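Lab notes, practical 5.
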Amino acid sequence: MEMFIDGSWRAGQSGARMEIFSPVTGAVVDTVPLGDAADADVAVASAARAMESWKRLPMAERVALQKKLAQAMRDNADAVGKVLNAELGRPLAACIGEISRSADLLDVYAEEGLRLQATMSLGQGAGEKTIVTRDPVGVVVAITPFNYPITLLMFKLGAALIAGCTVVAKPAEDTPLSTLMLAEIFHAAGLPAGVFNVVTGDGRGIGAALIEHPVPRKVAFTGGTAAGKAIAAAATGTLKRLTLELGGQSAAIVCADADLDKATTAIARHGFANTGQFCYRVNRVFVERPVYEDFLVRLTEKAGKLTLQPEGGSGDLGPLVNEKIFANSALQSDDARARGARILLGGARVTGPGYDGGFYFPPTIIADATQDMAVMTEETFGPVLGIAPVDSAAEALALANASRYGLAGFVFSGDLARGLTLAEGLEAGSVWLNDIHRSSHYVPFGGMKESGLGREKGRYGVESYLEYKTMYLSYEVPE
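Output from the prediction step:
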């Protein structure tokens, strides 16, 4: 594939290309341009031209078009899902589901656009009015990761388009194909040329060029904390607005009076979904001692039923996307084992026919984890859970908060008052009590501390792409 700029496919100006590999087989799936600063200039110029008319399009028309784009996603979910399956390795049904659920978010943002309002103060004197309105922030650079490339793009694109912004997206090096395909689908559905552009390349090349470019007024990024800090530092040169959804090392607290069946079902489901490759998964669990061993038995049994999908076969989980992501799971498992933890499940790469071509790591449960182990302090981004016993819920809360991250938290308690107290005490942007659902499209999503800046989804997401403008009006009052 080529880059998609100004409504058409465009080769990179340097001619350099990069290969996209299947995580399942290791074979080359396709190639895309390895873009550079020259390509960034072309894409940004296209977005800036398109914004002059896009921001003036009446909100009702933008809403109608966005709903049309959402339907186009649903109509093409199978085709885009197959491409996503090829580049990400996640089982096909889950890839198709990502496309459909992402379309729902476009609809939510469209609905929020209809609720945006200007206000007029009633405090002025005769012949004076003050109106507070909202303007689109400007051209937006959207930088997305590999793990949920379409969902996390829609977090940004859906809000930006409704706000009146145009977008230049740079997908992750591992998974650009589905985003490129979606850009063509959106253009065919009626999105004007230049409103949504997709460039390809690496972060240090075209990514840095986009962030440092003087024209874009906002960067929306989902990815690792180190990269987010570098983006924030680079964006200060032009005072770009930022939305950063960064790393997580989310903790679950399981009280002695919790429903252990519900807790272990939720944690097994959420901790290992997408082979652990998402930011707000359960990463570490603190369990009160009276139910610690029972919890471990139940969780190990449920996680042990999850299967890996080999090449040409079926299963619940795919491989990790590349060697770098795989290394986190392997290193954290080895570190815990060396420091005296019990590995109750998994803990080593799966090999053999159907598995040798990819980086397959099974669901892994590390018992008796301690705070000197990497699994309890650093993001894993893989299917590894660290479990530690605690003497009280207060101790669990203190340990959960003793982290530089603050993306999500989870509490299980049969006592509602205690559960709510713990949920309120967790230093995290989202907290679940007594079950773990998908994050809602209607409420804010984002992190505290080093897990990021700003919020996405719902009206909160749209507002982050708007600037307040105050207009002071004066007129002669008729006699």
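Observations recorded by the TA: The first helix runs from residue 37 to 54. The chain has 14 helices and 22 strands.
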